[in-house]
Amino acid sequence: MSPNYLYICYTANKLETGGLSGVPLKEYSLIALQTLRSHLPASIPLIGCGGICTGADALEYAKAGASLVQVYTGFGYDGAGACRRIKDQLVEALEKEGTTWGEVVKRAVNELSAKPVRVTPDENSVKQLIEEAEELKKLLDRLGEKLGDGPTEANGSAILSAAS
After folding, report:
1. Of 77, 89, 109, 135, which is the most exposed, with the fewest CB atoms less than 10 Å away?
2. pLDDT of residue 85
3. Residue 52's pLDDT is what?
């Protein structure tokens, strides 16, 4: 890694006008990744990105639920050797933990992903759906009036009939 790399990532980028990338985004990217992972089933892979400059960073993303990682800013600042260096560091970290990338990803994804919820419809849930459909119809009617198309009575009635 070039000596000025971390200085550039941690300091100079924070003062620039325009987009922000790299290390300053890592904390936010990890939070976004964890949030997405907790709301999505394990069958949907996520790609972690934002501040991946070391093998430890890549491993942190895997443990947060990423199936893959993307390196961009680190590659730009550190050059073509960045990906090889990150991979070598990652291999070393995985060997220390006695595991593989696939095992880390599988464990994290299985533990952190949203679990399927079985819902048995009852009278209250059907009633709630009908109420929500009626509210949606009102909103669509108001939108139609604002756009000059008039109320969507025919469409709204069809929706409510289907829900009943």
Report:
1. 135
2. 96
3. 95
Tokens 């730009």 sit on residue: 76
Token pair listed for 114: 């949203």
The SS3 of residue 43 is coil
Q: CA 129: distance to chain centroid?
A: 28
Give 161's strand partners.
none
- Start-to-end CA distance of the chain, whole Å, equals 64
User: Concatenated DSSP letters for 80-118?
Assistant: THHHHHHHHHHHHHHHHHT--HHHHHHHHHHHHSPPP--
Give pLDDT < 50 ranges for the chain: 152, 155-164
89 touches 56 (CB < 8 A): yes
Residue written as token pair 């070391």? 54
Record the pTM: 0.64
Read off the tokens for 59: 């491993």
Output 156-163 pairs: Cβ under 8 A, ≥24 positions apart. 159/133, 160/130, 160/133, 160/134, 163/129, 163/130, 163/133
Reading phi first (left if > 0) and then psi (alpha if -120 to 50, else beta), residue 51 is in: left
CA distance 108 to 42: 9
